[in-house]
Predict the structure.
Amino acid sequence: MDKRWRVAPEVSREMTQRFPEVHPIALRLLVNRGISTQDAVDEFLEPDYEDLHDPFLFRNMEAACERVWNAIHDGEKVVIHGDYDADGITGSTVLMTTFRDAAKRLGKDPALLTSYLPHREKDGYGVRPENVERLAKDGATLMITVDCGISCEPEITLAKKCGMDTIVVDHHQIPAKIPDCIILHPLVEGETYPFKKLAAVGVSFKFACGFITYCARKGSSYEVGYEKWLMDLVAIATVTDVMPLIGENRTLERYGLVVLNKTRRIGLRKLIEAAGLEFGSMDTTSVGFSIGPRINAASRMEHAELAFKCLMAETEEDATEYAKRLDQANRDRQKYTEEIMAVAKRVVALQGERKIHCIIGEGWSAGIVGLVAGRIANERGRPVFVFGREGERIVGSGRSIPEFDVVKAMDSAKDYIARYGGHPQACGLTIMGEENYAAFCRAVEGYADEILADVDLRPAIDIDAELAMSQVTWDLIDWIAKLEPYGEGNPRPKFLLRGLDVSAVDIIGKNKNTVRIAARGDLPREGKFIGFNFVSKVEGICPGMTVDAVVELGINAWNGNKEIQLKLVDVRAAETERVEVKRLKGVKV
């Protein structure tokens, strides 16, 4: 399917005059990301660790720290109930590491601090009543939920009846009724914490920082800088959970990547080695495509406990074993995903042009359907639900586009859903029985027909600026590097180059799936364009043609040499389609 090319508008002369020290293309990138004041520009270009918000700005931070301190001091049994994905696993690791170290300092048994991670398919998302009863029966008097809990009011009420207090550490959407307990959540009504876009691991990090300060006030200090060594985990889940890399998240990610590249965690080091990554050069791409998927593969193919044990490993033997198992789980996940993807694509083709797709398969894993939904939503430019059926139980995931909130879609069909939750762009749900599934599909299809009636659903590529080849300079490359780390909310910049005269098209690489195009723009020398997994996109492109290309700029380094790399995002014969001007909401340009 051809993609729309949407180019952001140029910045005004007034903006350029206000920031003469900023490269004009870099300034356009900043404005495209909503950064248009002096303070915002300074914070974005030079994020400072000292500018992180005080954790005690969370209105319940003092109460949360006091409850954990008392539990550890008095020898209570504490259970950290995490979610099964990378955010829940890393957040649980942050708190477990911090609290167990506190127990050691106080001369208490760190084994009294235990963890529970649910099975993705058997338990599903969130806190289950039967697990609450079991944890309470095992002697736990304090449960700390991580990346779940805010939607579990009945279960947390049950925990209280069973003699177990709860602290909720979460960031998911707020339901109509929230639990009556201590809550650390940036989005709850009346919350005083200023930054609202933290991942659950970010909230856990704030909890850990607050607790470290609280312990110092109680006369039990951690070593200086202890909390900074927790930031490797923050860097992983902030990217993996697709949180916007703006504001405080940008600072956490910037410094978290520094820590990740020299992490002390032996299990994480072994996992990084298994992924074939190099310490000192890991970035958000390394996290999003190599580290995060291996952590998530645990719950998708085995059990989340495997990833948690890897991150908590204390011996090289254990670390090596867990890392190898995670790496193999990820390989299995990739293979299984491709098998389901092939079937799902055929179903989509049979369904034709719909505003939303609902796809179901017998025995499809709940750990894989979300990946398939995400890929199809990205390819088709429309929301997608993918389900796996096991008898009467139908478990699915939804992935969406910016114009469509899947949680609101599920709200419109809630009478047919047994359990659901998530974010506007990603969700999970359980439906019982074929009749309810059919009714759900009808309901969300009707909702989508209404919401997306006037929306152009062709996939779009948002382009930051149009450049001539002569503008692709090392100075621009240096400025693009200043805008890292890239991710959600701060995507890697994309540029449009028009009127390129093609002199060569070569298929290269071991698997013959990489394209190299030589083309000339407004300079006499040719530029080399590289497209990975790009063969299908250059059909019809041949020497002698004039093309337009969307590219990302980077550096190709080899044998001590380096050159500017033009990475292809899309390419087509010149002027075959009008390029749209993307409107920026709320930003004066």
